[in-house]
């Protein structure tokens, strides 16, 4: 039979264990784990093929412009417009084709000189073994080009650790209504294996952000009433070899910048 002092000792022991556990939880937010426990030993290439329906007009649009700059209405390329989408993904190009998922996210018109979108979207699938799994894509979409390529930056569910790219081709585009159907071909690797490390490159350039003057490269399209926290800017900033405004342009940084 345990004596009261032994009981007390056991109680302290458990209290100590408990408190050291709490301390461990408070100071550590990481632990190492085996990659194979997450299925990282095998690599599987999946090809997905579907159509993306972007309906921007009519009684039931699936993509809506939520913000734009004051100058956007005068821009032939809609520079500064920001849209939120819940677009259907279907097996065929017809409007009544079977829906296999949704493309939920944002796209911004982020180019001065062409209709060029920056897309930040999650594709959520609703069919069979893909039901509930998502792929995240982030990239540049110059919509009038015949073929565009957008990186897949990750995924969830059966697409955990996914990476790959999507090739987009416009199936049809109605210039009057703005509605479009786009064919998506995805080459997707998931889960990733031991990929070759990419070659190491060092880039060096200047990012020119012009927020004053006649030709702005960054436009404020939305903001909170009180602070710069919450500001949304759409940018098409030139990347130049040097800091001078006359310096040679070697690229563009097109996208969104959020103030926080
Ligand atoms: C997909 O999953 C949801 C939620 O689990 C379920 O309600 C739905 O019936 C599933 N759809 C298909 C086609 O399996
Ligand atoms: C294009 O959209 C307009 C406006 O909604 C519509 O009247 C027209 O029929 C559409 N054209 C085609 C080829 O679908
Ligand atoms: C405005 O600036 C952008 C970015 O530098 C450039 O591409 C565009 O041609 C300029 N537009 C005009 C009208 O100067």
TrEMBL record:
Keyword Signal: yes
Location in the cell: Secreted, Extracellular space, Apoplast
InterPro entries: Allene_oxi_cyc_Dirigent, Dirigent
Superkingdom of origin: Eukaryota
Signal peptide: 1-24
Keywords of the record: Apoplast, Secreted, Signal
Coiled-coil regions listed: none
Primary location: secreted
PANTHER family noted in UniProt: NUCLEOPORIN-RELATED (PTHR21495)
Family membership: Belongs to the plant dirigent protein family.
Quaternary structure note: Homodimer.
Name of this chain's protein: Dirigent protein
Organism field: Stylosanthes scabra
């Amino acid at each position: 039979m345990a004596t009261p002092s032994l009981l007390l000792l056991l109680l302290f022991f458990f209290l100590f264990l408990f408190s050291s556990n709490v301390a461990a939880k408070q100071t550590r937010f990481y632990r190492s784990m085996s990659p194979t426990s997450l299925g990282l030993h095998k690599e599987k290439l999946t090809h997905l093929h579907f159509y993306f329906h972007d309906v921007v007009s009519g009684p039931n649009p699936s993509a809506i412009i939520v913000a734009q700059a004051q100058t956007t209405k005068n821009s032939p390329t809609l520079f500064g417009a920001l849209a939120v989408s819940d677009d259907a993904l279907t097996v065929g190009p017809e409007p009544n084709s079977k829906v296999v998922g949704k493309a939920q996210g944002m796209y911004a018109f982020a180019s001065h000189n062409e209709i060029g979108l920056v897309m930040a979207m999650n594709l959520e699938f609703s069919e069979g073994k893909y039901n509930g799994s998502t792929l995240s894509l982030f990239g540049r979409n110059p919509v009038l080009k015949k073929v565009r390529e957008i990186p897949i930056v990750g995924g969830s569910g059966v697409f955990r650790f996914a990476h790959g790219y999507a090739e987009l081709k416009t199936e049809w585009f109605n210039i009057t209504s703005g509605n479009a159907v786009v064919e998506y071909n995805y080459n997707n690797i998931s889960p990733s294996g031991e990929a070759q490390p990419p070659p190491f490159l060092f880039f060096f350039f200047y990012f020119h952000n012009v927020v004053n003057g006649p030709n702005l490269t960054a436009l404020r399209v939305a903001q909170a009433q009180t602070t710069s926290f919450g500001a949304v800017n759409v940018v098409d900033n030139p990347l130049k070899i040097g800091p001078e405004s006359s310096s040679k342009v070697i690229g563009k940084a097109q996208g969104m910048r959020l103030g926080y």
